[in-house]
């Protein structure tokens, strides 16, 4: 009987084992077939008027890139590099203006190689616009140049632009940080300055990120630029017509006092134009220096034969306005310097003082003219700093 029971138990075990094995085979899921790799292009195939700043991009999922070609209408291949994992290819230069590209990519995946192609067309501008980055003297600034604390940055476009479109492309960064703003004189000229004079040692970096940017009326930016300059010591000359003296300060310390004779005042109508003989009050900055300079009153409408006119060579002349105001030597007026105004608008000083001042100043140094008559200095004459800060802010494209 013991044997019979043992046989029955073994038989049940065998039957149960077969039943369980059968259930396992019935619940098994079939193996998923391999999926092919997928290629994607950016810009997407068929796009037109693609932004010129964009790079070409190819990505693959479920595989690795074997080869990529991105060819323009001339047959030139756009250079690019693959990521270390061979899943991404990116062009090493932007797509640029007016190109039609044909892209072809090959990738290897679980099902083998796949190939995909795409085309796209970039923006073809009506015209390209460039910008010149200058100081107030209208000369282009150069990397690492040093300017005075009254430095004003000038962006001069070679064609009119949409101010609201162009201004965000002009970025100014200062170290230490300073809040500044752009002021548009017209659709081609924008000036940038902070509320107060720059701190000595400030580093100013301007970036004009114009390439690929729409600037209005079918125009696009031609190129990008980036330039840095530095602010030197604080040179501020204060010319006070009440005292007839010019006091020169460096970093707040008085370093020289120079007697002066400024504009005689009054006006005259010459050839239908009203000419002023005041040294206009306001904040000027040094534009440039010349030794000698030919001063010709006919250049601003006063004929040399008018009785008030002149044409003469002047040494050690520091120009502070675009309409011909200089701080310069004039030995012939030394009798008036410090007591009487006799000039046509310039600030006359002695030869010794003029030689010192000529060697001392750099572009961007400040000359404040106080207590004279006539209209305040206008911005077109180099009067950026004469404009009150709230008015300056209103001159921004965002103001």
Structural summary, described in words:
By secondary structure, the protein is mainly β. It folds into three domains: 38-121, Immunoglobulin-like (Sandwich), CATH 2.60.40.3780; 127-232, Immunoglobulin-like (Sandwich), CATH 2.60.40.3710; 235-386, Beta Barrel (L,D-transpeptidase catalytic domain-like). 12% of the residues lie in helices and 39% in strands. The protein contains four helices and 31 strands. The strands form nine sheets. Strands 21-20-19-31-24 form a five-stranded mixed sheet, with no helix packed on it. Strands 1-2-5-4 form a four-stranded antiparallel sheet, with no helix packed on it. The chain has a four-stranded antiparallel sheet with strand order 9-11-14-13. The longest helix has 26 residues, at 2-27. The protein starts with a helix and ends in a 5-residue tail after the last helix.
Indicate the topology.
Elements: H1 2-27, E1 38-42, E2 57-61, E3 63-71, E4 80-82, E5 88-91, E6 100-109, E7 112-121, E8 127-129, E9 131-134, E10 146-147, E11 153-157, H2 163-166, E12 170-175, E13 180-186, E14 189-194, E15 203-209, E16 214-216, E17 219-221, E18 224-231, E19 235-240, E20 245-250, E21 253-259, E22 267-270, E23 273-276, E24 282-285, E25 288-290, E26 293-296, E27 311-314, E28 317-319, E29 326-329, E30 347-349, H3 351-360, E31 366-370, H4 389-394
Parallel strand pairs: 8-17, 10-18, 19-31, 29-30
Antiparallel strand pairs: 1-2, 2-5, 3-6, 4-5, 6-7, 9-11, 11-14, 12-15, 13-14, 15-18, 16-17, 19-20, 20-21, 22-23, 24-31, 25-28, 26-27, 28-29
